[in-house]
Amino acid sequence: MTTYPPAQEAFSRSAPVRLWEEGFARDPDSYYDALRAQGAVGWAELAPGVPAYLVTDRQAALEVLRDDATFSHDPRPWEATVADDSPVLGMMRWRPNALFADGTDHLRYRTALIDVFDRVEPHDLRARVHRAVRRLAGRIGPAGQADLVGEFARPLMALVFNNLFGLPDSYGDRLNAGLGKMMEGGAQAAQGEAEYGQYVLELVAAKTEQRGDDLPSWLLDHPAGLTADEVTWQVFLTLGAGYEPTTNLVSNALSRILGNPAYYSTLTSGARPVLDAVVEVLHHETPLTNYGVYYARRPVAFHGVWLRDAVPVVVSFGALTRAAERDHGGARHPADAWHLSWGAGPHTCPVKQHTLLIATEAVERLTQWLPDLQPVLPRERLSWRPGPFHRSLTALPVRFSPRTLDPSGDPS
Ligand code: HEM
């Protein structure tokens, strides 16, 4: 009989890199450097006592993402090994949705999601974002100062996603509060998970009662025949998968643009498209850092390490993008498809084009209406939210010439 060494043995000389520490948000590079020093696969902790293999090498990452015969997305064997109150369970526990499914179940859920998102036409999506930006720009414009995370990117995504999911704008704060706590994976994660779960349950119950022209209603009527419970879990996934990382894509892009005045002027003059700035974030500061979570189906030798089953194998999109920043000196890699920030293989993000459109439209409209945004703090003094899974600014304070929007939405 084959006996396998315990998971830690390959890393016996390395203490796990603790991604749950405060310092990770402040200085992720040093944590990623420590992981890379261990080889293609490093040993980390996602929460105290929750170990994981972190994949920091591009080739190894592609192998994990594409090889679904060796790697599964189903966390249940791992879940049986963790404490019930572990703060990362909110983000990692199994639910009957596309992200945690393999094979035919996965295909069924994923196809339904792709089909309903395909019903959202680009011009319609652009108009929804435009309306939401206008509303927020109208609110912050007269003050001449704002926090572009708390007063723009977060409420913007709450407005856009609630609108796509058929909820009134007034629901934004509830969405923000529940999801934000769950994503940080800290002491309030369980409460956030419960609040967000209740939010989604109420939403799907309302749509089951009375259909609307929105994503949950289309999912309920999709020919795949998803039950109301299955629709609830696809909504739980997509609303969360969309809201938090897209908020961070927009705020990370804004912070990079505003931190570089020469670059900002090329965007506001139209010399470079805003899409460039958004794509640059995907190359260098991806919002979803360590959330490509896989599990070896059986113990396997992989890039010099024994991977045990029931231990998360996490593709570190964050380590991969930060390595790109270092290796290419801040310039974008010549190949657009080089970054892996959308993942790859069967679970690759199904709504890349929608996301790029939302983020680009958001930045373009904001900088059009408030063209002289000035950061209050240098980029290195900005603070980042804790948590192993994301790269998320706490705040992005700016100043600008006060403006009011006339009723047509044009700046005056
Ligand atoms: C409209 C916004 C978005 C929505 C609705 C959305 C939705 C989803 C869904 C449903 C999945 C699971 C697909 C599957 O398992 O088959 C997924 C995967 C993924 N998404 Fe997105 N997403 C959005 C934005 C983003 C953003 C901004 C990023 C980061 C740049 C991102 C990165 C990813 C990655 C890396 C995966 C694959 C994770 C893995 O391999 O396990 N997504 N997304």
Write up this protein.
This protein has 412 residues and is an alpha+beta fold. It has a single domain (7-399), classed as Orthogonal Bundle (Cytochrome p450). The chain has 16 helices and eleven strands. A six-stranded mixed sheet has the order 1-2-3-9-6-4. The chain is globular, with a radius of gyration of 21 Å. The termini are far apart. Residues 1-8 have low confidence and may be disordered. The structure holds protoporphyrin IX containing FE. Protoporphyrin IX containing FE (HEM) is lined by residues 65, 98-99, 110, 113, 237-238, 241-242, 245-246, 249, 282, 286-288, 292, 317, 341-343, 347-351, 354-355.
- Which ligands are bound? protoporphyrin IX containing FE
Average pLDDT confidence is: 90
Strand content: 5-15%
Approximate helicity band = 40-55%
CATH class: Mainly Alpha
Alpha-carbon Rg, integer: 21 Å
Task: Quickly give the CATH architecture.
Answer: Orthogonal Bundle
Structural class: alpha+beta
CATH H-level superfamily = Cytochrome P450
Here the CATH topology equals Cytochrome p450
Oligomer: single chain
Key phrases:
Cytochrome p450; 412 residues; 16 helices; binds protoporphyrin IX containing FE; alpha+beta; three-stranded antiparallel beta sheet; six-stranded mixed beta sheet; disordered N terminus
Task: Produce the secondary structure layout.
Elements: E1 17-18, H1 22-26, H2 28-36, E2 41-47, E3 50-55, H3 58-66, E4 71-72, H4 76-79, H5 89-92, H6 103-118, H7 122-140, E5 145-147, H8 149-164, H9 172-184, H10 189-209, H11 215-220, H12 228-258, H13 261-268, H14 274-284, E6 292-296, E7 300-302, E8 305-307, E9 312-315, H15 317-327, H16 352-369, E10 374-375, E11 397-399
Parallel strand pairs: 1-2, 3-9
Antiparallel strand pairs: 2-3, 4-6, 5-11, 6-9, 7-8, 10-11
Helix pairs in contact: 7-8, 7-16, 8-9, 8-12, 9-10, 10-12, 12-14, 12-16, 14-16
The chain binds protoporphyrin IX containing FE.
